[in-house]
Design the sequence.
């Protein structure tokens, strides 16, 4: 077990926009999302985690 | 007529690391989904003037990184264009939980080939491993000809 429960990463995309990643308790990725909750689509994306202990975004409540 | 019928051996060890090439950076927090050599790539090894034999790349977790995949690229140029930079291999890096009483798992990608003179190895990560400082120390083991 990586963490006690699932967790959220706060992301900064290379184009300056924000996003989130949702990870399972075992540390595997459930999904990567833009700030509005839209899943990351096809194509090439670069992003950096700026907070690996972020609060759950409101659209995920 | 073959140009060389004798095996050659490296003349000196060549150990290189992403940290050495990026001011001590622990890599993994920045993800790059591209498989064509575009985006942010981290240099892991530079071959010598006569080429180098590269044995392996070693991934040592730092902190408790989340699961990701590391992609290894060969490039003929420091200008990492899609033409000059080629995806060579990938390695799955599962989530690792740091312990102060047990060693973390280490992951190795065997290479075992001769790299052309001045060619480079780069790495990227398919997903972010966490905040700054949580990721991998990536070390390449080889020898220069």
Sequence:
């Amino acid at each position: 077990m990586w963490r006690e429960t699932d967790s959220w990463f706060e992301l900064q995309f290379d184009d300056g926009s924000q996003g989130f990643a949702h990870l399972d308790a075992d540390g595997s990725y459930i999904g990567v999302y833009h700030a509005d909750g839209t899943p990351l689509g096809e194509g090439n994306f670069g992003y950096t985690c700026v907070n690996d202990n972020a609060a759950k975004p409101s659209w995920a409540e | 007529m073959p140009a060389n019928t004798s095996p050659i051996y490296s003349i000196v060890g060549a150990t290189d690391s992403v940290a050495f090439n990026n001011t001590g950076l622990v890599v993994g927090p920045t993800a790059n989904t591209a498989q064509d050599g575009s985006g942010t790539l981290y240099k892991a090894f530079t071959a010598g003037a006569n080429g180098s034999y590269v044995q392996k790349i070693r991934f040592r977790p730092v902190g408790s990184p989340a699961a990701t995949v590391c992609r290894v690229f060969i490039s003929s140029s420091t200008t990492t264009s899609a033409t000059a930079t080629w995806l060579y291999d990938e390695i799955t890096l599962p989530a690792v939980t740091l312990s102060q009483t047990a060693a973390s798992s280490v992951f190795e990608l065997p290479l075992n080939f001769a790299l052309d003179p001045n060619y480079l190895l780069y790495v990227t990560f398919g997903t972010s491993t966490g905040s700054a400082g949580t990721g991998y120390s990536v070390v390449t083991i080889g020898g220069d000809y």
About this structure: Chain B touches chain A through 24 residues (CB under 8 Å).
